[in-house]
Design a protein that fits this description.
Blueprint (H helix, E strand, L loop, with lengths): L1 H12 L8 H4 L7 E5 L3 E4 L2 E2 L2 E4 L3 E4 L3 E2 L19 E5 L3 E3 L4 E2 L3 E4 L10 E2 L5 E3 L6 H16 L7 E6 L3 E7 L6 E5 L3 H4 L5 E6 L9 E6 L20 E5 L5
Parallel strand pairs: 1-4, 2-5, 3-6, 4-7, 5-8, 6-9, 7-10, 9-11, 10-12, 14-16, 15-17, 17-18
Antiparallel strand pairs: 13-14
Length: 248
């Protein structure tokens, strides 16, 4: 998926391939994660459907589930075979304030936070204390370049986001047959708006999931909340959540 996504970027932006370390983008690591940052992650959302990785610490508030929407991956670690075996990876610690369920893989962190609540692991999965599961330095230049490039994409006007006093943060987004590239710029609404929950309405219109790439750009310097599009289902694997300033 990431290889296809890279070629899509080239077709949109005429990127000079010599400017990035393309070999690292073509491997099978980066494409595994829904959220990949070099800074700290502080996430408050009920459900995080995919895998997450951070070079710094990961702090979870009221997160019930992580990785439960990886539909093509077995639920238990004894059946992962060639699938990526981690759902959470950090070179710091991972802390949760509730008993978070982790699906489809292990947790890997370089240290353990003694104040964290326990995680619910599935069969033969667990918490592995190991540093440098990911070689962060090898990825930083390439990922930072791509993230900044994504942040400069024009909004394709495929949806809208606004703060409603009654319905919380409202996000509407629609896919259309014959359109393969979508960009939606959220600005810094996650950090400047006061909302308790997000109400999302995604119209997929039964568009072929393999024919689209969706970029959600955020310009927040500090991200404490994360929008979860629970009704995206299989389309979730086609979304890149881009927090460009989190790579600095």
């Amino acid at each position: 998926m990431f290889k296809n996504f890279y070629y899509i970027l080239i077709s949109i932006l005429l990127i000079n391939i010599l400017k990035v370390n393309s070999e690292k983008l073509f491997d099978n690591i980066l494409s595994q994660f829904s959220l990949f940052t070099f800074g700290e992650q502080k996430l408050t959302v009920n459900n995080i459907p995919g895998r997450i990785a951070a070079k710094s610490n990961i702090n979870l508030s009221y997160v019930s589930n992580i990785g439960n929407s990886l539909f093509s991956v077995p639920k238990t670690c004894d059946a992962l075979d060639g699938n990526y075996k981690y759902t959470i990876v950090t070179n710091g610690y991972v802390k949760t304030d509730t008993q978070t369920s982790v699906f489809n893989g292990n947790i890997a962190s370089s240290s353990v936070n003694s104040e964290s609540q326990s995680f619910n692991h599935y069969k033969n999965c667990g918490h592995i204390v190991q540093k440098d599961v990911i070689d962060w330095d090898e990825y930083k230049d390439a990922v930072t370049y791509i993230s900044n490039t994504l942040a400069n994409l024009d909004d394709t006007q495929s949806g809208q986001v606004y703060n409603d006093n009654y319905n919380g943060l409202v996000v509407t987004f629609g896919l259309s047959n014959g359109v393969s590239k979508y960009v939606m710029n959220f600005g810094s609404i996650l950090s400047i708006s006061n909302f308790n929950y997000c109400n999302s309405n995604i119209n997929t219109d039964n568009v072929d999931v393999n024919s689209v790439t969706i970029v959600f750009n955020f310009s927040d310097e500090n991200v404490y909340r994360f929008i979860s599009f629970d009704n995206l289902r299989n389309y979730a694997s086609r979304v890149i959540y881009n927090f460009a300033l989190k790579f600095v």
